[in-house]
Amino acid sequence: MSRDREKKPVPKAETYLKYGFVMIEHESYLCPTCSHVLNAGPNYQPRYCDQCGQKVTFAGIKWKEDQELGYAREGCL
């Protein structure tokens, strides 16, 4: 079965508004099988996807801090 073999998670960069006006870029990781967002960070890395059971490995991943992109303009909301 392919779920027994470890796979690297897929990185996904997203932007969101923090405090309603600061644009932040955040990198999250998705399961390579079902594309479910893994609850992972530098202090906790799950060994399996909690949705499909795919075994994942975070070996070699360099964690990035959230990056402030600037302030949202009034018409951009």
Task: Please write out the topology.
Elements: E1 10-18, E2 22-30, E3 37-38, E4 67-71
Antiparallel strand pairs: 1-2, 2-3, 2-4
Can I get a quick summary?
With 77 residues, this protein is mainly beta. It has no helices and four strands.
What does this structure look like?
The chain is an all-beta fold. It has one domain. It has no helices and 4 strands. Strands 1, 2, 3 and 4 form a 4-stranded antiparallel beta sheet that branches. A hairpin with a 6-residue loop joins strand 2 and strand 3. The chain is elongated and about 50 Å long. The model has no long low-confidence stretch (mean pLDDT 89).
Helix run count:
0
Mean pLDDT equals 89
Runs in which pLDDT lies below 50 for 5 or more consecutive residues are none
Main sheet properties: 4 strands, antiparallel
Q: Structural class of the secondary structure composition? A: mainly beta
**How many domains would you count in the coordinates?**
1
Envelope shape: elongated
Report how far the terminal alpha carbons are from each other: 46 Å
Based on CA atoms alone, the radius of gyration comes out at: 15 Å
User: Strand portion, in percent?
Assistant: 25-35%
Along the chain, the helix and strand elements come as: EEEE
Helix proportion: under 10%
Work out the number of β strands: 4
